[in-house]
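# nightly structure sweep
# worker-07 picked up a monomer target from the shared queue
# config: single-sequence mode, recycle default, output format = structure tokens
# input follows
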Amino acid sequence: MTLVETLIVLAAGILAGFFLYPGAMWLHRRIVPDDTEEALRSAIEEHTSADAGEAADIRQERKMLRSILDLAEVTVGEVMTHRRHMVTIDADLPAAEIVDSALASPFTRLPLWRDEPDNIIGVVHAKSLLREVRAARGKMETLNIEGVASQPWFVPDATSLLDQLQAFRTRREHFALVVDEYGSLLGLVTLEDILEEIVGDITDELDTHVAGVYPQPDGSYIVDGTVTVRDLNREFDWELPDETDYATIAGLVIYESRHIPEVGQTFTFFGFRFEILKRLRNQIQTLRVTPPGTGAGAGNA
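# output follows
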């Protein structure tokens, strides 16, 4: 199956089968498998409606269809949860503490590590863990946590979202750990992360806002350097450029300034003001981001 055919099937399946949007039927009528990607994008832009009441829905459908076409160009390294924000559990903790940690976490799948946090030895599913607790009839000392955990699945950070989505489907899994070319742990990616690239945030009562972002009374945000640009754009409807040369907000500042800034330096890029608040060696740890229109002065040091 060609890339275009795959995208057509994916778009139709997501829009028609999952979200029940009429855009899927329109897509089937408008394009054929022999179309190039450019033809698909042109067809998507032609998907409009004269009815003002439908205009917002049509715009959302076009945005989703564009996102589907972009899946082959975006990598898991750009959408993953950075390892600094991962919730993991020390496998050598007493079983009762591991169960308590799993119950306190908003996530259903939790990586287990031993000796050092980057040494992931398994992934425990909360449902499987609770099933084991019930079987043990409260005798926590008899629990075999590693026996409940599944083998970790590692994927390269350069894997495209389209390839990863197909891999999730083939393996019937929703969770993978992301590593670089040297095998070092970078973070994790889930099926939900990929779906959110298409449809936007999928939230439930346990979801939290973007980790590492702290709104301030003056309209600015204190942001950890490891927060991704894509997460910020999605959370706040910003339009900061998301290039392949960087994934995080710290990476954007370094890329645009062409050097590693000092604490106290300020920059203005794309209408946003960036102030470096904390740096450890060559890593920007914390910065203040002021969006356009908040009244903060612009500067470049």
